[in-house]
# Entry
Amino acid sequence: MKGIPVYHDINDLHLLTGSSLRTKNPLFHCFNMKEANDLKTTHTAPHRANFYTLALNLGTEKLTYTLNENTFHEPNHFILCVAPGQVVKWKKQGDWFGYCTFFKSEWLLFKEQLNFLQQYPFFQINETNLIQTDRSSLQQFETLFELILSEQESEDTFGEEVIRSYFQAILWKVRRIYETTHSNNPSHKAASTITAQFLYLVNQLFLNKTTVEAYANLLNITPNHLSQTVKAVTGKTARQFIQDRRADEAKYLLAFTNHTVAEIAYQLSFSQPTHFSKFFKQAAHKTPIAYRTQATSYLR
# Structure
């Protein structure tokens, strides 16, 4: 077992799945999932992409879907939100039903990744979002996806602008559902902005920056102010977020690669493997080896 591969090109991910689908647009591709029913593969190995996935699943047959360390057996009627860097694998024994979109945030004209995450928080890398939808919402989503596919096929003037508008409508509808099922309510805009900036930086820099002080310096605020703000908005301390992100990455590497415990320890900036083992046992309540044994057996 090698390291977890990262796919940078949308067509490379199509190639991985065995699909004959291809796109000329390197930033956006929407398709009806029945178009991928010609693929011969029934499963994928663990992988990551550096772009987003938003899919509407309408009952794919005998599907098992793993996102990060969470596995879902035959999930039905849901919106799937996958962020760049999250670990994905799936297997199925029947046909696909639904719609899928691969896209990069710059296609939506965001200059900064952070601004995109502030607007669409259900794509945070530390969350696993399979969002259940009711029948009314499903019909609305289906209509919007069909409008996108129609525009995509026609290649009419201003087609990309029209597609972008339909897709943003989908994202706002997903956010509406997301906010009804998440209890985190930012106390005010400034606190929400600081927290979003912090979470974005942690996801980018956790391998090398492991203290609250390091992130406070980047945000030009005091460590105490950062900790209080993050706690008020999320209910978790800034230190917890840093530790959780490192622990999550350790879990992915233990479950999906053959890297040794020592290699993982150094990759996560621990000075000694013993320090990593102690950290991991506190976070996961089991040793790295015990976690790997359990995870590989469960995910097999």
User: Anything to note?
Assistant: The CA atoms of residues 4 and 31 lie 26 Å apart. The chain has eleven helices and ten strands.
